[in-house]
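Two quick folds needed for the group meeting slides. Do the first one here.
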Amino acid sequence: MKNIVLTLVATLLLFSCKSTKNYEQKEIRRIATNYQAIINSDINRSSKSRRDIKRGLEMLEYRVALSADSIVFTTQDGQTHVDSFYYNPHKIQYIRQHSLITPGKILMTKGKP
């Protein structure tokens, strides 16, 4: 009976680890596709909890979504002003959903900023 329980626990752990890795890979592919980014998915492959993986994916999406599609620097009266332009609809949606709009972020949505 003890062997059956140990075998069952080991099997569950194996499937849990595999599904966590599949989840992580699927989410990295989704982020890379939506935001048209190149992401090295082989980094930090150490064993982590699902919560840590989810936090890491949230930070990855945050960083990728806030990377501007183009940046324009203008200097006027000795001061430099930076405008970040966002054309990708997924980035624009992320910025709006998380209330990250600032004066320097210009969201370009089909002809209307």
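Then this one, please, same format:
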Amino acid sequence: MTVLVYSGPLEAVTIRGVTFIQGEPTHVDVSTQAGALLAKKMLAWPDVNEAVVDEVDVIRATLEGLGVKVDKRWGIERLREELAAAENPADPAE
């Protein structure tokens, strides 16, 4: 996951279906070919910078994107466990 911040003159720009709002962090999934290409192209813009983010913030954002209600008190280990459970749900027949 890469976080980009657009600081250009427009309030927002939408590129390949992703909206970059001026001054707000935008998460781009670079694990996919499309995401990696988008991040590479956006970083070529003089008005876009990569934000430094903590792994905890990335995992929280990923979990929230998967629909998991995240408790802000959870540490990195609990977040990793929740992410693993969300990405590999148990078989309901078991």
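Slide caption for protein two: The first helix runs from residue 33 to 43.
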